[in-house]
Amino acid sequence: MDSLKILEQEAGSEIKVYLISGRLDESTFPHFKEKVLEVAHASNTVLNLSDLKYVSSSGIRAIFELKNRLSQEGKKLLLTEAGEKVIQIFNLLGLWKPFSHFEKEEDAIAACLKN
Fold it and tell me: What residue stretches are annotated with the STAS domain (predicted)?
């Protein structure tokens, strides 16, 4: 079984970047919840999905829950560097368009700095 790894980085005083790698599914959701969903967030949270190999509907629900929580607090969630398979799963569920997404992490950070 592939696990979920989460690396947290600061990209400025109001930008937190999480590099998500492995699988985000039913079995790894608790780890995502503990490391990302339940912690205090900066004004801008970037999820770098470049090393995410698989995301299930439970994983997408977790990301959507994060987006909603941040929106309620007046904060932003940006997705970056998602692979084709991950994007296909989001699109299959009709859930890619509601997210702000960027091809490169640097572009997402630049967008955060503009606001």
Answer: 15-112
Q: Where are the alpha helices (DSSP H) in 14-96?
A: 29-32, 57-72, 84-92
Q: CA-to-CA distance for 33 and 39, rounded, in angstroms?
A: 9
At 37 the pLDDT is 84
Residue 74's φ and ψ, nearest 5 degrees, are 75, 25
pLDDT tens for 19-68 read 999 999 999 999 998 899 877 678 999 999 999 999 998 999 999 999 99
Cα 89 to chain centroid distance, Å, stands at 14
Neighbouring CB atoms inside 10 A of 1's CB total 7
Pair 15, 44: CB distance under 8 Å? yes
* Residue numbers of the domain that contains 35: 4-114
